[in-house]
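Please check this record.
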Amino acid sequence: LIAIEGDLVAPRQNEYARADKAVAWTILAKIYLNAQVYIGVDKNTECIESCKKIIQSGYSLASDYSLNFLADNDFNEAGMNEIIFATVSDGVVTQNYGATTVIINGEVGSLEKNTIALGAQGWGGALRVRKQFANKFLGGAVPLTDKRNTILTAGRNIDIVDVGDRDSGFIITKYKNVTSTGVAGPDPTFVDTDFPMFRLADVYLMYAEAVVRGGAGGTTGEAVNYVNLLRTRANSTLITSSALTLDFLIDERSRELYFEGHRRQDLIRFGKFTGSSYNWAFKGGSPTGIALPSHFNVYPIPANNMAANPNLTQNPGY
């Protein structure tokens, strides 16, 4: 990434959904933030440096959180200002069941008639949230007016006792195949909503975390300010410097970035993915959650890769 930086287009100057310098800086920030876990070297100062480059490149938060997850997020306010890199979905020319198609159709409940609201046909409550996540919004940590809360609770139990019972467990409506003007995408099965792989909001939270972890080049005041920019947009309560802790940040990342593909890596970095100190429903396959062995922090090398390259050594535990 460092070697090719000079070959990349300046931030926000490339064609939408093509990588530029800011994409490289975001990936580097993530690598640096996780370096302590994987190579035992503190790279929080380098993470702050990368985040500052992105923040100073002209990106800004969309005025409304939901704009990041709508069918026109490739050209609405979020696509133009907040989204750093996205994987593209189009209901006409990129028809597939991955990306946001599976997310949006999975959000439609088997009891709720939210098909029209989401602009998708729906797959009957395929995606539901665990109680532990729901309580990040409903347990009193943030006001119920927090706009990031897209959980539907009516007529449902918070606990999922039987995975096969799709009427149990809360569902969400974060992603929609509907534009910011309320127009549904052209195809109710294959959606138009792009998946925001990297957003400025994530960069703000990475900066704050790297500061709390002791990185140089940033300040607690700036970190608190960036967190409060997100919470102001969300109509949530603001924090003070005394509240800016790692425990707060792991929860705040879940509230801001849920269903955006960051949680597993976050839990590993915070030492909460394996072991039994931090459990959630169906962790390890148990309804109440059980401990996971530490080697699960790293994926196994696929068998076909091992067969193709005899120089590879399988990761421990697999």
The mean pLDDT is 95. The beta strands are 83-87, 151-152, 171-172, 195-199. The longest helix spans residues 21-39. The chain is about 35% helix and 5% strand.
